[in-house]
Specification:
Length: about 350
């Protein structure tokens, strides 16, 4: 297998019987709840071609007849011939990522026109494992999202994380990033902090050419900045809100709100993971507010389209309580060019 092939994520459907998805009382097994983010201590039977990072939809046969879980392979397939009496040959470590509640029933799957030619479905999944081709995977997830809209954001995050973990060699990425930063700060002209109200217009889309394909690139940051400006200007007045304000240390702040003699700094992030948004924004916000020569701010606000999760809330609260850092997180939801706070 080539290096390129080894990083391509594969998709599977695992078929399991009631004794493996129900407990003795007929309830869903607790150890299949995705609340535990660690990999399972055991293995699950799989195809010999399974690789670490592959995604799996778990189909529950017989009693339930539905797709109920999204699972990730946490190891390559390995031999389990000596570990079972059922004749299973390969297994892998696994982690349950998501539970579909309610699950996607076999009846729902069979009613979906785009899946009418999918052979495993026509056979009612009469095997233990099926490989799912990328086009079918997209159709399946499109159907699931119709019943679970929040799943779209979750799926985008794990696909994004996999891409950056497997497609971008970390040493090269870190070196390129550091080289860019060194060039930036060695040549930069520092302008003192000076509040200027307003929001100059920016383009919101362009076209990027890549090998063998062209993709539309939505400049979400610009769209969110415009939407955030409009919302804050309506609330605090246009004279008290500005964008791309010089920080005084050679960088610019996405959005600044003036409150009398105080300032609030807003940093916009577009990553689908709230954790990544927090990680990326905190360093910039602290530098804007506390680097020698900068303008101190009384509020530092991370802005994202993604709703913060419970761990993110606990993390920010710890920073506020332990270090008195004025950090907050706000979700912005765009609606036909406007925004509202989540």
């Amino acid at each position: 297998m080539s290096d390129h092939e080894s990083t391509e994520r594969q998709y599977w459907l695992w078929v399991t019987r009631p004794e493996y998805y129900l407990d003795e009382e007929g309830n869903d097994r607790e150890d299949l709840e995705p609340a535990n983010t660690e990999a399972s201590d055991g293995w699950w039977t799989c195809h010999r071609e399974t690789r670490k990072g592959d995604l799996v939809l778990l189909y529950r046969s017989r009693i339930k007849k539905d797709i109920a879980y999204l699972i990730q392979a946490e190891s390559d397939a390995y031999s389990i011939r000596d570990e079972n009496e059922e004749g299973w040959e390969y297994g892998c470590n696994y982690r349950v990522l998501y539970k579909f509640s309610p699950p996607i029933s076999l009846q729902t799957l069979k009613k979906e026109p785009t899946l009418s030619n999918w052979v495993p479905l026509r056979l009612s999944f009469q095997r233990s494992v099926f490989q799912i081709q990328p086009d079918v995977w997209e159709k399946l997830n499109h159907l699931i999202i119709q019943y679970h809209p929040e799943y779209k954001q979750f799926l985008s995050k794990i696909e994004y994380d996999h891409f950056y973990q497997t497609k971008i060699p970390l040493p090269i990425y870190e070196q390129a990033e550091r080289t860019t930063e060194l060039q930036l700060f060695s040549n930069i002209k520092q302008t003192p902090f000076e509040f200027r109200p307003g929001c100059p217009p920016k383009i919101s889309s362009t076209v990027s050419s890549q090998t063998e394909r062209r993709v539309d690139v939505a400049l979400r940051h610009n769209d969110l900045q415009q939407a955030l400006y409009r919302q804050l200007a309506e609330k605090y007045g246009e004279k008290n809100v500005g964008t791309e304000i010089d920080s005084g240390i050679g960088t610019s702040i996405d959005v600044v709100v003036r409150q009398g003699e105080e300032y609030w700094f807003y940093e916009i992030k577009t990553d689908p993971s709230p954790r990544v948004c927090i990680r990326q924004a905190i360093g910039q916000l602290l530098e804007y507010a506390f680097w020698p020569g900068s303008q101190e701010a009384t509020r530092l606000i991370i802005v994202s389209e993604v709703k913060i999760d419970r761990d993110g809330e606990k993390y920010l609260q710890t920073l506020k309580d332990r270090y008195a850092l004025p950090l907050d997180y706000e979700q912005i939801v765009t609606e036909t060019g406007n925004c509202r706070w989540g």
